[in-house]
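Appendix B. One record, verbatim.
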Amino acid sequence: MILLFTSFVKFPYKKSLKRGVEMRDNRLFIAEVKKQLAIRGWKYDRLAKEIGYPLGSLYGFMCNKRSSDRMKNAIASVLEISI
């Protein structure tokens, strides 16, 4: 009975190990981005405009729901921070 139940339930924490590692690594980068935005007095809409990405994509990256090396590099370039 338990096996039958678990086959229908989708667990959100069943992600690949590689993606999990990337997401943890992004937390420090995201913290630095938020610090730089506060120093500059920028909001997410200004950063999205500067990096050339839609605001929704930036929100997904900043809340650690998406991982994108291209976006990470664009943000680092605009804010002049190291990756």
